[in-house]
TrEMBL record:
It comes from Chondrus crispus (Carrageen Irish moss). Transmembrane segments: none annotated. It comes from the Eukaryota. This is Glycine transporter domain-containing protein. The lineage of its organism: Eukaryota, Rhodophyta, Florideophyceae, Rhodymeniophycidae, Gigartinales. It is a multi-pass membrane protein. The keyword Ribonucleoprotein does not apply. Keywords: Cell membrane, Membrane, Transmembrane, Transmembrane helix. One of its GO terms (cellular component) is plasma membrane. Residues 63-137, 150-225 form the Glycine transporter domain. Pfam families: Gly_transporter (PF03458). It is found in: Cell membrane. Its main location: membrane.
Amino acid sequence: MLSRFAHLRALSRSRVLTTRANGSSRILSSNERSASTSPISHELPVDSLPRFPTLSTPGGLRALDYVGTLSFAHTGALLAATSGMDALGTCVVGTITAVGGGTIRDAVILNARPFWTEEPEYLYLCLLASGLTFAMWPREKEDNSALHFVTDSAGVAAFAVIGAQNGVRAGVPAIVSVVCGMATATFGGAVRDVLCNRKVRILHSHAEVYATTAAMGAISYLGMRRMGAGVRARVGTGLVVAFAGRCFAWRYGTRLPVWQSRSETA
C-alpha cells in the first residue's frame, strides 16, 4: 500500500508543474506545460523594450533613450560645474539629472526597484558624459548649440514614451501612466535645479513649456494604444508629438499662464 502511494505521488510530481507569480503558486495547464518545454520566444511584450538597441522600433526607442541619457547627464553636469561643484558633485548631479526621473517613477509612483539597479549601463553612460563635461568645462561653459537642443528634445520624447510604457506594464490607471511619462522626462531636472539652487524650471514660466510637452507625448502614446494601433504607430506618434511640441514651444516661446507677484506689479 505504501509503495503504491509513493508511486502515485512521484507520478503526480512528474506531471504537475507550478509557477510562482506575484508570490503565489498555480498549476500550469497542459497547454502551458507544452509551451514551457517549447523553444523560448524572442518576441517582447508590446509595451516593453529590448535590453540594448536593435533595428526594431522598440530597439530604436532604446537607442533614443541612450541619447537622452547622455544629453541629460551632460546638461546636469554643465550646470553643476557652473555652480561651482567639484568633480564628484558634477558627476552626482549629472547622473541624477539623467536617471532621477526614472528613479522617482519606479521607487515612488510604481513602488518598484529603480531600473538602473538591473541595468547598470545607464550609470556608466551618466558617469562618462558627466566626467567628460567636467573635463571640458573651461571650453564649454554653456551649450546652446542646435545639436544639444535636438538631443535634449529627443530625450524628452523618448523618456515620456518609456515612462508611459512602464505605467502600462505596472497596470496603473491611464492618468498615472501619463504622470509616469512626465516624471521620467522631467523630475530628474527638477532635482538638479534644487541641488544647484535654481528655480525649478518645470514649475515656473521663465522658460518655455517643458513638462507639458512630455505629458503630451505620453498621452499620445496611450491614446494610440487605446485605439489598438501597432507598436510602430503608437511609439512614433508619442515621439513625434513630444518632439514637435518641444520645438514649437522653443520657437514661439510658449509658456503656461502665470499670475504676476506683488513685487513684479509694484
